[in-house]
Batch of 4 targets.
Target 1
Amino acid sequence: MQSMLDGRSILYGGDCRDSITRLDDCSIDAVVTDPPYALESIRKRFGGKNAAKAKADGMNGGFARLSGGFMGQQWDTGEVAFDVDFWSECWRVLKPGGHVAAFSSTRTYHRLAVAIEDAGFEIRDQLAWVYGTGFPKSHDVSKGIQRRRAEDVEPVRAICRVVRAAMDAKGVKSRDMTSEFGDCNARLIDHWAARDSDSQPSLPTPQQWATLRRVLGIDDSEIDAEVARLNARKGAASDEWTGADIVGEQTGATPGFGEYRFMAKDRTIRKPTDAAEQWAGWGTALKPAWEPICLARKPLAGTVADTVLEYGCGAINVAACRVGHEVRHASHTSLASCSGNSLGKAGTAEARRGTRGDKKEDRGRWPANILHDGSPEVAAAFPADKDGSAARFFYSAKADATDRAGSSHPTVKPVALMRWLCRLVTPRGGVVLDPFAGSGTTGEAAFVEGFRSVLFEREPQFQADIRQRMDLLFSGQEERGRKKVKAQGRLDLDAGPLFSR
């Protein structure tokens, strides 16, 4: 445990499932967090209800990417974020009426929300954080057809027949050999020994083949050479692709997060085959433009009034989270002023509301369950009137290098967005818990808003980033500016708000 910001923020290293057991019952006012989205889940291959758990260190070859998680990060799994038992611990440490605000992805939100609900929380709403800087990670079907190595299908099946015959001769099943491959799931071995009727034959890597030879007693130099030849072709284009006429070359920057490129290194444009041309223009994904935020609440202890008076939790701070600077009177029929499309500074209810004679004024619009990043692309999607775009009625936040604060974390949420969320669900002087602290933006947001925070972070390198972020809060703008320049030097890791933490 490390104390930061003169004791206003506490950082626990290690697995959050262990760290949370150190917290007392009903000691936390709000949970504001961005759990891993599990976008690349090994469950896609080995996720059956009764399947043995696959170990990432036992996975290699064609399954290494799936076991590695988003952008190769081992922490991008759903083992905690989708675990009812973990959210039950969050329920335990929260005060009655305490809220959870948890980010997720459009693809895996259902697992997060169901786990939170099954732990005993009430799902209160789903917020949508909309942004314009996402880009599609779509597979070009036409190119995939032309690049697939159809000529390798039969040779790979021939290797599978050899493995299957050797297993049958020894009377062993796939499950009998899992210990030889890091206690992997038996289905991985099934792919290496696929029958001709099976749809997914797979080629073992040279290391896996050496183990198969030893365990099954395979001794055939021709087969060894064929396995080596086929492995050397992994990642190569098909004969159809390499033999096609070159009609052009792609120019411009290749999109992606630094070294994580989403397009092939081969920039040539080839004349398509008849089969490929029939699927020109087809892909596999839409452009990502929003992330859901699950807003849930621990059940009240009586009425809302009872719970608020006893525990300080149970309600959301509407007045401090109003959006924009419009002045609207009690009749809500006139507009006194319009300025800006972002949330004003935090304040008390009195500061956010005023009077005009004997009429009550509301400064700013009632906070909505849609938030956006302020980008021109998103603003253009809102209708406009004589006073401007309706986008001004929704909170605007956008991540930049200042939010990164020199962190090497591949995903960083905007501090302003995290401030708004903390302010929405945390009572005055309350404690915010972030079980997946990442680069520490929730901790910074809580401090700036006058709250205390408890942070959990498993990865040592990101624990260092969190400590650096907190130190910068006392170091002044000059030092933070130097960290901003440092972060800008590696902005290829940061594609804006997409998948951001």
Note: The radius of gyration is 27 Å.
Target 2
Amino acid sequence: MPDPAISILLPFRDEAAFLPECLASIRAQTESDWELVAVDDGSADESAAIVERWADDDPRVRLLRPGRVGLVAALNLAIAEARAPLAARMDADDVMLPDRLRAQREWMDAHPGAALCGTQVELFPPEEVRGGYLEYVRWQNECVEPGQIAANLYVESPFAHPSVMARTEVLRAAGGYADGPFPEDYELWLRLHAGGHRMGKVPRVLLRWRERGARTSRTDARYARDAFDRLRADYLARDPRLHAGREVVVWGAGRRSRLRARLAMERGVAPSAWIDIDPDKIGHRVWGLPVHAPEWLAERDPRPFVLVYVNNHGARGLISARLGEMGYAVGEDWLGVG
């Protein structure tokens, strides 16, 4: 049997309630040249039996049962076993729309220099979806082009993990997923970006992303806010744009912004000033650094590199417009930091 075009990587554990719908969505794909590498991470329910029945009916389905090894090890086992040049992630509780694999394969073929692409997603079921997550997905769905993704990578993770398709050889060369006190998917995107890889997105909703209280990202400390903040600071501090001899300043002198900026400062980022719109702060010093109004940036020559530590998406949009008016280009002269 020839190697398939796409290997679908599906780690699972105790997902019997959702696997039938997930597997049916895979079988319903308009792209048929795939294999499913399903890794049972020590399920105690009927999950493995469900996948085994599908494997009996469809030779494209392969079930691996290494025991309880953890998500990262299960993912890396799937990468090692993948026979296709493209690897598509999938979670057992999510649903692919019928054109997902075809559209991503076409995107990867059209962008041979890209390492990875995601898709836009929709949250479901509606009764479980809350406002904050809706706003995150709205932002994520607007990050589509490789340039947008690179410029926003320090804001949030720009991909829904189960929507991603990557080149298998790139994943293997990068060493697969890393295990540590951080979100394994976001760490991989940051690592690929640091290695010079381009990443994009198919501008279509092609995955239904399930929201539920028991989701690992809501219950595991690796996906807590401070874990994201530390991980971002680790990679930001090594970004060559902050070590090119340019002055670095931080936009955002509020307490929360300062505390997040401190993580990067502890790792060697040395800003010379804060930027803030609060008249009570402007002209004073915070942590020994002067606080300036935004207009100061227009007068500065040479132009400093600005780290925008403002979390609100709406406020960040206003800051982006303000910086653009002063001639600052995102990615070249400033970056948003979540």
Note: The first strand starts at residue 6 and ends at 12.
Target 3
Amino acid sequence: MPPPLTIFDSPDLREIGQWLYDRFCQQLQAGWLISHDGAVIIDSLSERLRQRAEQLVTKFSQTRPNFISIATADPSEFIAQLMAGTRLGLPIFLGNPRWGAVEWAQVASLTLQVEPQHQHLIMIPTGGSSGVIKFVTHTWATLSASVWGFQEFYDLAAINTICTLPLYHVSGLMQLCRSLLTDGKLVIVDFRELCAESNSQIDRIEIEDYFISLVPTQLTKLLDVDTQWLGKVQTILLGGAPPSSELLTRARTANLPIALTYGMTETASQIASLKPAEFLAGYHSCGLVLPHAKIETILEIDRDRSLDLELDAGALRIQAKSLMLGYFPDLTLPTYFEPDDIGTFDEQGYLTILGRNSNKIISGGENIFPIEVINAIMATGLVQDVWVVGVPDRYWGQAVTAIYVAKDLSVSAATLATAITGKVSNYKIPKHWILVAKIPRNKLGKILDREVRSLVSHHLGVNSG
């Protein structure tokens, strides 16, 4: 059975670190970690990982660094460093091994501010897409609260998961935590190999008992490669970026057990989820709020001017047991968190995210949320990818602008504008169309804001903000 939550209520944080480290060693012996080719790591590889963790515990005990920074593409080395740092209570900063000099200079500036009270904290990066890296501060208590909320919502004992996402990202890290803390299994798979080899890497495990977490771009690629094994997993958690209506239609047609999710680094991953049966029945919201969280809407916006749909929408306010301690080095414990998201609840309590308040376009006095226009354009089937922004305009205030990757060079701006006429209000049809070979996104499929602004400015000769 999973361990009691009360261990994380202990005032002795050293006790928690030792307990987690001991559990890690025990779980290794029980076959917790499974290699990418389906071979259970219980013998030499398991012992090698345990020895590496022991080696790091000895090293850190002797040198006693102010913090450790984990930035490795090797999952085994990541886990060894994480557990060694946890055992000793060292401040842990997770990093992207692909960061460049600018990003690491930002990290160095932040780590200079480490102080004794930062022991036992885990700093998870966020904000890289805006060009400024921030670290969201968590503890094993907040991470475990996310695990228990997930476990209760899905009514599970053990949580088995297939991880294709980087462990330094909250969506990858939480898969490690869920499996470790619930006596589950963790399968770490390189997504590129998974696409290249179809189902050959996972056909040795009983995937019917496994969750897999994907971002929309990954799901799109897997649908192009093979849907047979993908339809057999217990649940496909889909998050990280808004999925297009076209992608959701493809997933339903393939009868995939999709669970649309809503969450963020600040809440230690998902705090709302739509279960697969509901998705396959035609629902497309983010589902119900998980038991460890509370979400409410505030600052209601004018529905008549914001959406064609008859929805009451507002900014979100979140409370959760998994809520961060703050952005490092500020550890002012927030009682609630207000993201930039605009959402609405239906009568059954299902949450729908309409977009980001900061991305809202005000054109001719009308409020426009880009996701509406994006979904309409994707539904035409004429583009591979699209993003919508507002650019300054002397007459309109902001002009709706679509950046798109066409499926065929014959697809013109006029063709697209005609295709969505009648699908959205006329004032939502883009006034500018920019054809590109690729839309700037990070590895998880999230838009790189700075690069998009630069691209728009280059093509239109305006400052896109």
Note: DSSP finds 14 helices and 22 strands in the chain.
Target 4
Amino acid sequence: MRRAITSFIVATSLCALSPGAEHKTWSKIRYVGGTVVIKTSPYDYNTTLTVGLNPEPIVVAIAPARPFAPLQTIRIKPDRVISLSLGQNAWNRVSEVRGAKLPARAPSLFGLLEDHGFMGIVYKTDEGKPAAILLDTYYRWPILSVLKELTGKGIEGY
């Protein structure tokens, strides 16, 4: 019994993360469109979004449609984020950015099959140019709440 308790305490202490190294990572995200020039598959949810603590950037790793092509990584500084949005408003905000490429929207069936899982991030690049990313995910609320806390921006569209 003593050995089991000791091994449990050791395993628990090894699995605990230090607060200085806290990262939040989400996968199962689809890159829909934006100012990043990359060809992705509309059926693959292979994009990963990682948010670190304040001095670290927001990192979006987009998987291309080709099987052995490298990931395209975008690093966004939290102070450069202009707006966070979700749903139809995210689509509209990203499409307003100059140079953003979005696919044609699928028609809805009497409003029943509308997709409101969109999440938009509009930001400025290091050169000062506006840029945007439109993502599709079921985890939009946890992601947007962490991004809202990190950037201090409100969420548009809810």
Note: The longest strand covers residues 24-34.
